[in-house]
Amino acid sequence: MKLSAISPALLGLAASVHAYTVNYTTVTGYFLQDETATDASTFDYTAVNFGLLNRTYPADKKLKNAESLTQWERFYNQVQELNDESHGDVEYKVLFLGRHGEGWHNAAQTYYGTPAWNCYWAELKGNGTATWYDAELTENGVDQALVAHNFWQKEIDEQRIHTPDNYFVSPLARTLQTANYTFTDLKFPKGSAEFKPLIKELFRESISIHTCDHRHDRAYIHEMFPTWPIEAGFTEQDELWNGVTGETNDAQDQRSTKALDEVFFTSASVKKDTFVSVTSHSGEISSILRVVGHRTFSLNTGAVIPVLVRAEKLVHEKPDTTTSTWTVSAHCTSPPVTSVAACVCQSSAAPVTTALVTSF
Ligand SMILES: *[C@@H]1O[C@H](CO)[C@@H](O)[C@H](O)[C@H]1NC(C)=O
Ligand SMILES: *[C@@H]1O[C@H](CO)[C@@H](O)[C@H](O)[C@H]1NC(C)=O
Ligand SMILES: *[C@@H]1O[C@H](CO)[C@@H](O)[C@H](O)[C@H]1NC(C)=O
Ligand SMILES: *[C@@H]1O[C@H](CO)[C@@H](O)[C@H](O)[C@H]1NC(C)=O
């Protein structure tokens, strides 16, 4: 499908334009990941209580039993207090942004090297032994999701952490699998929300020409996890991926903003639903972090980052409805020259921008 054929309605933009825009900001001072001194490349969320800083909170003063509560219990209370004390147009939520475990596309990118991967291999569905069209998790990727599973269980047992009130998941296979391995069979605290993630189109990975960003059709996804809800309006076929053009950062940030707009201010009791899990991807989580004004923080495969977000409706501001255009990426039609760190095709052939894979 050509870019010109993608209407705003298809992207879901026209359908839910609000009468307001939302100002999203990251509230710092609670997590190590917010601090410039924290090195994302070596950060292990499981070693430091998800990064929650050891500190007291203003809301502790109203607690009779603060000393007997854990850091996560007092933090949850603090977030409730922030919500109770703010007016109706302000909402605080803690987003637990989880990146999927290693997928076959990650393994292949390492195997071929990034230039050759982007320049040719990623545009194919696989290489005969591995498939990376809507890539599934490798064994290592499953293990990484189980690390997240075990860590959540430890936090439930030791910190009595409040588990998510709502779960969202990208429709790509690797995130569906990751959410499943992470949250299925946890011994949840009494009264916690059931794990039934909403499959949400707009939390998918950056849409590039790579086949790993092309999702399966709705029927396939439903068959994978028959009991999980799929959001209304989710199309049978993937109508966003086209193999020719991909989202720019601006276009993706508009999409991420819309996704968040569908998570915040959504029902009468929203303020009670403060902890939200989103199982997504590295590119999409980077985009969400940009939208909420968080510093750049790259996640390793399988890692999770909690972010305290303040959202405020700006009711007098008209939403910006201009949509950023997508862009083409040049690539080769056969394996490229690998001795250079760039996209150089064999026999001095010029890179093309036509789709390599057209049939699905
Ligand atoms: C958005 O919220 C932040 C934090 O409350 C504030 O500093 C900023 O001025 C707000 N921006 C707009 C456009 O209202
Ligand atoms: C807070 O203290 C506990 C116990 O001393 C420790 O295990 C944890 O890593 C500390 N958290 C941070 C973010 O430093
Ligand atoms: C295909 O890619 C995988 C990496 O995902 C690699 O392990 C395998 O050896 C490759 N197969 C061929 C035939 O090159
Ligand atoms: C979902 O997770 C459970 C528990 O780890 C596992 O037994 C099951 O095979 C997973 N299902 C899929 C489709 O991956």
UniProtKB/TrEMBL annotation:
UniProt keyword annotations, A-Z: Signal
The keyword Repeat belongs to this UniProt entry's keyword annotation: no
Listed InterPro entries: His_Pase_superF_clade-1, His_PPase_superfam, PGM_Phosphatase
Organism: Penicillium malachiteum
Protein name per Swiss-Prot or TrEMBL: Phosphoglycerate mutase-like protein
Signal peptide: 1-19
Gene Ontology molecular function terms on file: phosphatase activity
One annotated Gene Ontology cellular component of this protein: cytoplasm
PANTHER family: ANCHORED PROTEIN, PUTATIVE (AFU_ORTHOLOGUE AFUA_1G10590)-RELATED, BROAD-SPECIFICITY PHOSPHATASE YOR283W-RELATED
